[in-house]
Fold these 2 entries.
Entry 1:
Amino acid sequence: MDRKIFFIDSGRHAGIRGFLRLSAGRRQKRAKAVSKEEAVQDVEAIVLSIPFAKYPDVAPLFNNVPEATVVIDTSNYYPFRERAIADIDGGKPESVWVSEQIGRPVVKAFNAVLAVTLAEKGQPSGASGRIAVPVAGDDPEAKAVAAKLVDATGFDPVDSVGLLNSWRQQPSTPAYCTELTTSELKAALQSADKARAPENREALLCSFASSLVTTLSFPALTTKAHARSC
Ligand SMILES: NC(=O)c1ccc[n+]([C@@H]2O[C@H](COP(=O)([O-])OP(=O)(O)OC[C@H]3O[C@@H](n4cnc5c(N)ncnc54)[C@H](OP(=O)(O)O)[C@@H]3O)[C@@H](O)[C@H]2O)c1
């Protein structure tokens, strides 16, 4: 797979970049510094891996990006980490909201796999127990690009159908960061319960907040959890 991918990130989840080391070694040696606006002009795919609530900030970057460029959204909504967004709390799938913010279609991928999993657990295609990663989107060609990237990164892509259905791979669903194989992931996507996921996410926050480690490491998070009467 010889493609040019632009990554908007540099945080923990930037492990997807390992893919570049596999496929673009020669080009990396010839790399030169360009602005974000220039960099997104000549790529087949853009991988967005920034805090969820920051998407409105990057919208202008897409003004002149060709329609054929595939945009991959890796984000997750954690209201206690950033800010509450009424549309999402009302049930709008997270990547649908992202798509609206940047004004173009997105494919949801890599959101349901931890950075540490990406960095350490990728395996060659066909390996026994290879971990599967859900890919949701409305454009089959765009989804195929994302699926190839998932495969090249060391994971089995699983089509989780359209973006409206992408809540099935959001935080606190059975498919979210649970390191399942393809058949297990398909079953997990089917068994997701849309109403329970936000409740599970809140319960997780309360569980974190009650642990001594969290109290020591993330005092701000703990304060927010207490404000929610955990
Ligand atoms: N970490 C994981 O295991 C994991 C797993 C699945 C999905 N995700 C999702 O991936 C996304 C990124 O997570 P992360 O763990 O990598 O977060 P992170 O370590 O906090 O990194 C976030 C990155 O986004 C950049 N950023 C923040 N605001 C920005 C803006 N307005 N424009 C451009 N870049 C901006 C930050 O740059 P500065 O440092 O310069 O501010 C930082 O490099 C989140 O939506 C998260 O839910 C993460």
Note: The beta strands are 5-8, 45-48, 70-73, 107-109, 132-136, 156-159.
Entry 2:
Amino acid sequence: MIIGDYHTHTTYCDGKNTPEEMLLAAIEKGLKYYGFSSHAHLKYDESWNMSHASQEEYIKEVLALKEKYKDKITVLLGCEYDLLSDNDLSKFSYVIGSCHSIIKDGKYLSVDHSEQTFNECVKIAYDGDYYAFVKDYYELIATAAQREEFTFIGHFDLISKFNYGYKYFDEDDQRYEMPMYRALDRLVKAGKTFELNTKLALSDKRTEPLPSTAKWLDALSECGGNIIINSDAHTTSRITDGFDEAKAFASKYGFNSSLILTPNGFEEINF
Ligand SMILES: [Zn+2]
Ligand SMILES: [Zn+2]
């Protein structure tokens, strides 16, 4: 049984469906909890996230839907905050701490916008050195350890999104593994929960799960860390997509439970 999905988008950011359409689909799927997590404002590229004004509209609409459907589902109001975001977080009941971009020598570089942009960033800002980009990415996401407002870490290994088949860099190389494990260690020590993002690890035209996710799942399980499974759905059809595969995948690395989020905080649920 799937209980909750907390990483989801709507037309308030880069999602394709309205909040009500998403919520009705979640009810249809029988979820007990549904979390809205529109992208928080990012001044460097405003094309895929909420403005400060639309954030207020978003909060109003989600709270109205929470009330309207309270007999059918429990709604949680959240947002997906980028480490370079600048919005007020005081009204959210949970916050996903994610890293989609970094600033290098004053230049804004997107990690996940498109494969072409990703390569241009490495060429322009790192003289083609993918490992230097990897190191800066993991150093930035490690700073989430100091952010108490982050409820969990979103798609920890997003930097590997376009590297399937080790197309651009070798993830078994120390230059990949060391920065990743250092970031994981800092986040675990700060008590952070990690998201197993089904869109990144299992979908996106993948025939096999993302290798980098297998690496960190293994390391996280070794040190007794926790995961939360989310879809990162941008359309109604993708809500809870890949959850069964995610449980089977996590089980291979020693997990037999994941966390769900309730209005009173995390609860552990066995697979
Ligand atoms: Zn994201
Ligand atoms: Zn997202």
Note: The mean pLDDT is 95.
